[in-house]
Amino acid sequence: MDNPSDKAYSEGKRTARKAISRGVPRVVVTHGLDEEMIDSRTGLPMDVLSAPPELAAWQADYVRGFNEEIHRAVGAGQVKTDFRPRLMTREQVHEAFRDHTLGTLSPECTRLEDAGGRFVLTLDVPKPRKASKTGLPRPARPWSVLISPQGAEPDKRLLCCEEPVEVALGQDGRVVLIKTRSHYLAYDEETAQILRRYPVR
After folding, report:
1. Would you call 181 helix, strand, or coil by DSSP?
2. What is the pLDDT of residues 19-59, one digit of tens each?
3. Can you give the pLDDT at residue 192?
4. How confident is the model at residue 132, as a pLDDT?
């Protein structure tokens, strides 16, 4: 009979190899993500893997196999992506909103263009929903902030929101910064990968 620990470890390595072959892989963690979204060791995005308590041991071996294969590929030069140069400090984010504000997305202003012509941000505001058959109002659907290359249809959703959001640019326009009521959110302009969440203080 196969050892469940070895089987989970091998499955993790196999899955990682598939992820590497498809492009930008991710590092897997078993804890929730709060502020950090990029792995400090590899510069790759992190994904959370959750499992019921009875599968905790299997999960740990799977994650170990998966991440070992990712680290091996990074060390061997098979993975070139590294988002660490895009990471900003809180002070840099504050400076960006002071010196490089792009505008505010709202129902009155649903489109913002990068002056360099690299991308367009749009706010998708759903139409109000009709009342239910009982006459009670239906809950409003959230707005969506979308990013797309200049001249193309919006194709990547950055976040959902229910109120206007301020937008600024960092790292010479390579990082899109969005301020909500509770957080500053940083995204890579080219891939729309979220880089970090900074609580508003």
Report:
1. coil
2. 999 987 999 998 878 889 999 999 999 999 888 888 889 99
3. 93
4. 63
SS3 state at 68: helix
Termini Cα distance of the chain: 55
Spatial neighbors of 140 by CB under 8 A, at least 6 apart, are 126, 128, 129, 162
Q: Rounded to whole angstroms, how far apart are CA atoms 90 and 183?
A: 11
Burial of 118 by CB count in 10 Å (0-12 exposed, 13-18 middle, 19+ buried)? middle
Q: Which of 77-81, 127-131, 134-138: highest mean pLDDT?
A: 77-81
What DSSP string runs through 4-23? HHHHHHHHHHHHHHHHHHHS
CB atoms within 10 A of CB 63: 19
Is 20 buried (19+), middle (13-18) or exposed (0-12) by CB count in 10 A?
Answer: middle
Name the CA dihedral angle for 78, 80, 81, 82, rounded to a multiple of 10 degrees.
110
Structure tokens at 52: 């019921």
Is the CB of residue 62 less than 8 Å from the CB of residue 12?
Answer: yes
Structure tokens at 182: 């509770």
Give the Cα separation of 45 and 37 in Å (integer). Answer: 6
pTM check: above 0.85: yes
